[in-house]
Amino acid sequence: MRRLFRKRNDLYDRLSELLADIKPPTLILDALWQEQFKNHKSTKIISLERKITDLMKEHARYRETEEDLIRKKKECLRHIINLSQDAHNKNSLEAKEAISEFQKAVLDINNELEQIEKKSDKLPPQLDKANREMMLETVFGIYFNLRKSRARSQALIPIIEKIRLELRQATAEKADCEEEAARTYQLLHNMIGSELLNLLDGVLSGFNKERREV
């Protein structure tokens, strides 16, 4: 068991080297991938799928929050521009205080945007790593499933050949039985005629029914 486990790890490491230069796709968005693993996802694949989904949702939340903050910042800047005329030309204390509040809001928004950018910048490498792991796990799983399918296909060959032989024998036997039945029926028809043969058919049919019911 340890030897098999070591061999699988060696193969996994080798696959990692071979696929090192390939940009990992987001496989969970691929319909063919979903169809392939619909009913037999490994524990690792389920875990990675959940992780990738969470990272994508988190990235989407950051983008949404960033867009909302940028919209608010533009609103604040618009208010500052509109109030500047009153603040400078009319020396309006109220306008100056409002400008100060909007400037503070802009600074706060800038700080939030900076924090979001720092958090958001960490996501692509994490997502890339998770997608790479998913790609390796997918190739690894498909490889062994392919070997398993090929082995099963080879194992089915003698079974199929046996069934084919039995089918040919049964078909030949069926043809012999039908030929014998036709010959026998023709003999009876020649011996007793069609009228008596029909009566005999009725009697024998009733007799066979009674035998089945006993």
Query: What is the SS-derived class?
Result: mainly alpha
Overall body shape: elongated
Per DSSP, what share of the residues sits in E-state strands of 2 or more residues? Answer: under 5%
Run of helices and strands: HHHH
Largest sheet: none
Radius of gyration: 40 Å
- Tell me the span between the first and last alpha carbons: 60 Å
Structure annotation, total helices: 4
Mean pLDDT across all amino acids = 84
How many domain modules? Answer: 1
Q: How many runs of DSSP E, i.e. beta strands?
A: 0
Unreliable stretches: 207-212
Proportion of residues in helical segments: over 70%
Question: Topology, pairings included?
Answer:
Elements: H1 2-18, H2 31-36, H3 43-89, H4 93-213
Descriptive notes:
The chain has one domain (26-213). With 214 residues, it is mainly alpha-helical. It contains 4 helices and no strands. The model is unreliable at 207-212 (pLDDT under 50). The protein has helices at residues 2-18, 31-36, 43-89, 93-213. α1 crosses α4 (93-213) and α3 packs antiparallel against α4 (93-213). The protein is elongated. It starts with a helix and ends with a helix.
